[in-house]
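Anyone up for a design puzzle?
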């Protein structure tokens, strides 16, 4: 079982075309670290995941949600054609970037905004777009959501009593108006966490799959839901397993000159 990287994997617009070489290097976006802007900034989550939304809300952040609609298979195929076979930690970063960039591009296109089925007129101008994606790595293979109940059952019979690495890619696009050096940054990182699974009986697997929960999540398990009793230990960030790493998000925000506390709802800070 490959150990999760001790450091986050970073990429930015300046090095995205050299993805494999960039993945282990910390790279900053075009952002000054001289101070933080005073303007209030809003977070736009480019994900339909209820777990990610709940995690952010529990941390005092109330993001707006706008699902990207990205064709994940096409995005991975394009990246593979360009860079070769991707490691799971890189694949989730590709998908997270594709989701965040698709939403940012939509916001920048007046015609697309007007034609979108969701009313986007009330979105604030100071927006950072966050895209996320997760995959479970087991025996060198990457697993997203199961195709069906049969697939989920087979996965759990393979996972039980063993350990895997849950990779969650994060990508931020600074869609704020370009002023004072703002509105030009894009960067991301992957959080990798080792997850140890209980040795489930066939009956437990059948009952869990019948609940429907494994079919809706990457890796066919949750740690914060019905699957919680089947995860015996975690080495790394719990929140990354749920779907969004709060410590990593804080670091990415800082690269863009934003404090995580700037995103708290007014009642969260006191």
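Challenge accepted. My sequence:
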């Amino acid at each position: 079982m490959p150990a999760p990287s001790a450091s986050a994997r970073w990429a930015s617009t300046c090095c995205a075309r050299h993805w494999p070489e960039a993945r282990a290097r910390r790279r900053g976006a075009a952002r000054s670290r001289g101070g933080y802007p005073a303007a209030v900034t809003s977070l736009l989550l480019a994900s339909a995941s209820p777990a990610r939304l709940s995690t952010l809300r529990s941390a005092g952040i109330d993001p707006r949600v706008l699902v990207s609609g990205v064709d994940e298979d096409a995005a991975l195929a394009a990246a593979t054609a360009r860079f070769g076979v991707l490691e799971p930690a890189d694949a989730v970063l590709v998908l997270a970037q594709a989701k965040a960039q698709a939403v940012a591009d939509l916001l920048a296109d007046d015609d697309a905004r007007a034609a979108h089925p969701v009313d986007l007129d009330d979105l604030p101008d100071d927006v950072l777009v966050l895209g996320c994606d997760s995959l479970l790595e087991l025996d060198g293979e990457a697993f997203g959501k199961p195709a069906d109940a049969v697939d989920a059952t087979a996965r759990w019979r393979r996972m039980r009593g063993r350990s895997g690495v849950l990779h969650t890619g994060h990508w931020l696009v600074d869609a704020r108006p370009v002023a004072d050096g703002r509105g030009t940054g894009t960067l991301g990182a992957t959080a990798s966490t080792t997850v140890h699974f209980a040795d489930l009986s066939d009956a437990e697997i059948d009952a869990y799959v019948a609940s429907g929960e494994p079919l809706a999540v990457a890796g066919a398990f949750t740690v914060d839901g019905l699957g919680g009793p089947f995860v015996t230990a975690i080495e790394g960030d719990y929140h990354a397993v749920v779907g969004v790493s709060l410590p990593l998000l804080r670091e990415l925000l800082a690269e863009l000159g934003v404090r995580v506390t700037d995103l708290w709802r007014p009642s969260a800070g006191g």
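A detail worth pointing out: The longest helix spans residues 88-108.
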